[in-house]
Amino acid sequence: MSDASCDIGLIGLAVMGQNLVLNMNDHGFKVAVFNRTVSKVDDFLADEAKGTQIVGAHSIEELVRLLKRPRRVMLMVKAGDTVDQMIDHVLPHLEAGDIIIDGGNSLFTDSNRRTKALAEKGILFIGTGVSGGEEGARFGPSIMPGGNPAAWPHVKDIFQAIAAKVDDGTPCCDWVGEDGAGHYVKMVHNGIEYGDIQLICEAYDLLKRGLGFTPDELHDIFAEWNKGELDSFLIEITAEIFAKKDEDGKPLIDKILDTAGQKGTGKWTAISALDLGQPVTLIGEAVFARCLSALKDERIEASKVLTGPSGVAAPSDRDAFIEDVRRALYCSKIISYAQGYMLLREAGKENHWNLNMGGIALMWRGGCIIRSRFLGKIKEAYDKNHALDNLLLDNFFFGVLNQYQASWRKALVHAIELGIPTPAFTTALAFYDGYRTERLPANLLQAQRDFFGAHTYERIDQPRGKFFHTNWTGRGGRVSSTTYNA
């Protein structure tokens, strides 16, 4: 019988799994590994894991025998049915108090279900988001664990050791909450990532088509931006992308087809926002922008018959326009994160998760794809006021928006005049203008709903929660429809 000397077992040796295992090994943890295609275990041990204390297993039964109690088994497999199938394979070899960890991009409702179902069998479940891509997994990702709280003390040391660290050494990993809370926070992270990427693409398009900047010039602009308020992983890699040359010496960016892919987490975020009635408009537009990009053949045909503005001069002051675009990007980013945090707050209430908003910003501060200087400001805002209703009500954020909004508007006026689509910039400004407006035209909307469907309305001269119905034509009855909230 094998010696139960391993601290944790990991199933799934794709790139993320391999890199997490090597990361754990670097930090002194002994890891047992298994893969459904068993030859991959031997290949890994002979190559990437050569010279380490990583132990290979050729069956799940052997993997479990190698583990210290309580046994910790981490799954790095494709989200969905594959996770359930793997759990079913592992379960017969475990005993009460053992821990199963799902480190994939699972839908949070699946993690809700798995936490409860496994608890009934005496097994502790953790559903954890892991962000940072291949490099993050290898050298320090952002880790967002949720699930059964009783499991956390048994994995805390491993997770916090391998996680990214911020400047003072604090790990970008802490307990998020019960059931699917960890995977929900990871989902919102990915939705915000969709928004950040789309905003950067719109800034690129405005500078490229608005002023005709070359990739080399764009490299210089983005590298400069990365030294200031926009300092972030995504701005940094964007600058590097613009500098990359193809084999013929020409910019690689100009040779990449403009159709975007997606794995679904941005879509899940938008769907959850609709379910919870939260106006997370920017992430929604970012998802739809990818869908529009996928209609490449139709766009080619449309470009032949649909006209845009002609004879419009490019902005005359290049430096001023660059700064307007930079400020538009920063303001829109603030809106996107404010919307993401609105969603987190509402999901926390709905699911009875006690989410630490400042702690989430700290987890995202390093290791993950959206890591940036900006997240430190979010952490500060929630440190000042744990009950902050909205990031836009924090004096740092409303101070920036008040100062920069004129530039933001100028950039969008230029975009409209030039016929350059900026869906994320535009929806961010529309949300800002809606959120700061004391009286919106929804009074007319309510009148219309009451007119055609007797859906009732509230009055400004009566207490909230008191509903009225009007017989608008004199022909209708006095009966009103059931009141509901959308």
From TrEMBL:
**GO process terms (BP):** D-gluconate metabolic process; pentose-phosphate shunt
Active site location? K186 (proton acceptor), E193 (proton donor)
Q: Which domain of life is it from?
A: Bacteria
The protein's enzyme class: oxidoreductase
Enumerate the SMART domains for this protein: 6PGD
- Keywords, alphabetical: Gluconate utilization, NADP, Oxidoreductase, Pentose shunt
Which InterPro entries does this chain map to?
A: 6-PGluconate_DH-like_C_sf (IPR008927), 6PGD_dom2 (IPR013328), 6PGDH_C (IPR006114), 6PGDH_Gnd/GntZ (IPR006113), 6PGDH_NADP-bd (IPR006115), 6PGdom_BS (IPR006184), NAD(P)-bd_dom_sf (IPR036291), Pgluconate_DH (IPR006183)
What is this enzyme's EC? 1.1.1.44
Q: What is catalyzed by this enzyme?
A: 6-phospho-D-gluconate + NADP(+) = D-ribulose 5-phosphate + CO2 + NADPH
Task: Please tell me whether the keyword Cytoplasm is annotated for this protein.
Answer: no
The UniProt function text for this chain reads: Catalyzes the oxidative decarboxylation of 6-phosphogluconate to ribulose 5-phosphate and CO(2), with concomitant reduction of NADP to NADPH.
Family recorded in the similarity comment: Belongs to the 6-phosphogluconate dehydrogenase family.
Q: What is the name listed in the Swiss-Prot or TrEMBL entry for this protein?
A: 6-phosphogluconate dehydrogenase, decarboxylating
Q: Which organism is it from?
A: Paracidobacterium acidisoli
Q: Which gene encodes it?
A: gnd
